[in-house]
């Protein structure tokens, strides 16, 4: 089974509806990513000779249905940001399809479109960025920042935009009069609320949130996550939620996709994935979550052993084999395919059926 079939079938298993065909989306699917690849050239020397490629995203496929949250997790460098940026076409993919259902219900392939063709569709999909400090222009007022997507899409008069910004600020838990201020006046959590308000300005249906709480204090993380979940319910939003932290996605996702070195290694609903991971890498990520006692003291934390493989020079066979405690000979030579191991749960591991990795 291909990654695409597996992720789509996993999504079907989660939401309980019939599987869709590969190049046509069923009516509930907002986004279908097919075999997405993004390779960066490695250039050396004065003449900038091409000496290789970084396979940042290497054949990633998944589907997101209307109103659901699909999470992308994995350690730093596994290709989460590159995947997100390709989807919103902040960068062009090397190959693959990004099938997107427009506000009018038409299905288009964002990967094959020019920036000019994409511009009128932009209001439908927006991004929330990881760093609320660098992602807000310090020289723009909050009004200018939040209303920018409206201005770009030529939506509303100045006074209509002011009303909209006031409404958005209230929705994200801030005061309307803050719109006259500059970003430096706000804390990290407040800035991320402003980033969310900006993403919501043009009434998108799909939000791609790249580690939206990772830069925030733990206490503030929960508030911003709760806000995002409330907004999803109120506005019927669809989320692609990116995080390096499995504990963050556990509560909020309908489907979790685990990536390692540009590839999908496990897909499943969070409850199953946490209780009974099928891929040793997922198990290692779960084991690395801090275990705390009642007074908040960290008791143990098992960091996965070894270095993360480089996407510029990945190992042979299973990319995880140099770090995997269960590796056998075949793992060094043969790349494992993503397969359904238990209903709705998929893993790319030669030993997934025989290993008991329950937590
Ligand atoms: N513009 C770029 N040029 C070359 N390599 C890049 C570029 N952007 C990202 N990479 C590499 O691609 C891989 C994936 O990066 P990224 O998508 O940022 O991962 P993540 O968000 O999961 O931390 C990393 O090895 C990173 O160094
Ligand atoms: S294929 Fe082999 S090396 Fe890779 S995760 Fe499975 S057991 Fe480990
Ligand atoms: Mg990133």
What is the secondary structure topology, with strand pairs?
Blueprint: H1 3-15, E1 29-44, E2 49-65, E3 69-73, H2 80-87, E4 95-101, E5 107-109, H3 115-118, E6 125-128, H4 142-152, H5 158-171, H6 188-200, E7 206-210, H7 218-235, E8 238-243, H8 246-250, E9 255-260, E10 263-268, H9 270-275, H10 280-287, E11 291-292, E12 298-300, H11 329-333, E13 339-342, E14 345-347
Parallel strand pairs: 3-8, 3-9, 6-7, 7-8
Antiparallel strand pairs: 1-2, 1-4, 4-5, 9-10, 10-14, 11-12, 13-14
Helix pairs in contact: 4-5, 4-6, 5-6, 6-7
Bound molecules: adenosine-5'-diphosphate, iron/sulfur cluster (SF4) and magnesium ion.
Structure summarized in a few sentences:
This protein is α/β, with parallel strands linked by helices and 359 residues long. 29% of the residues lie in helices and 24% in strands. The chain starts with a helix and ends in a 12-residue tail after the last strand.
Tags for this model:
29% helix, 4-stranded antiparallel β-sheet, 359 residues, Rossmann fold, binds iron/sulfur cluster, 11 helices, alpha/beta, binds magnesium ion, single chain
